[in-house]
């Protein structure tokens, strides 16, 4: 479902294609800056399993754990997956606080969801000394996670479009931890001088964003979106 948030055509994150070698990835991006990768994997088979109908048929009665969409204090709520899809998967209310916005992302039961993840082809690059962990999510248009940081990882859009905002570790963004990304975009972003603008880009299905360790980032789903991240811990 198309959202009401316009897509920003400008992209200030560097892009790379399948010609990027592992050694060049380590040299240019792994420890220094984000990059959007296109054509490095083919997840058409995984995408075919992630339609609304297929996911409801496979996982409808199973519980999923929802998190609040704020930066520091996450409240967890368990609901059946079917209830989330049919009743809670809605466009973001601009007036609703992050602590009152429930978001399905990250807390996946690998006993139940493991067979689905076996069909996912992760990006071919790794950071030495880390191991990958998947985090799968589905969210409504206008939803997203406000600014936060953690270890390095990749994030791929399966369905929909997802807008990303990123700052390096030494440049803390101006934001309220209980304000949704949509509210930040509407109220704070327009007041930023050019020197304080984040790196940003909108990802489309099949595109993968890599973000280095401790980079601040916030996300905004422009449509009802399905996405999966590979965290390198």
Automatic annotation (TrEMBL):
> What is the scientific name of the source organism?
Hippolais icterina (icterine warbler)
Q: Which superkingdom heads the taxonomic lineage of this protein's source?
A: Eukaryota
Domain (JmjC) ranges: 99-233
**What protein name does the entry list?**
JMJD8 protein
The record's GO molecular-function terms, alphabetically, read: cis-regulatory region sequence-specific DNA binding
Give the PROSITE patterns listed for this entry: JMJC
Gene Ontology cellular-component terms for this entry are:
nucleus
Record-linked PANTHER family? ARGININE DEMETHYLASE AND LYSYL-HYDROXYLASE JMJD, JMJC DOMAIN-CONTAINING PROTEIN 8
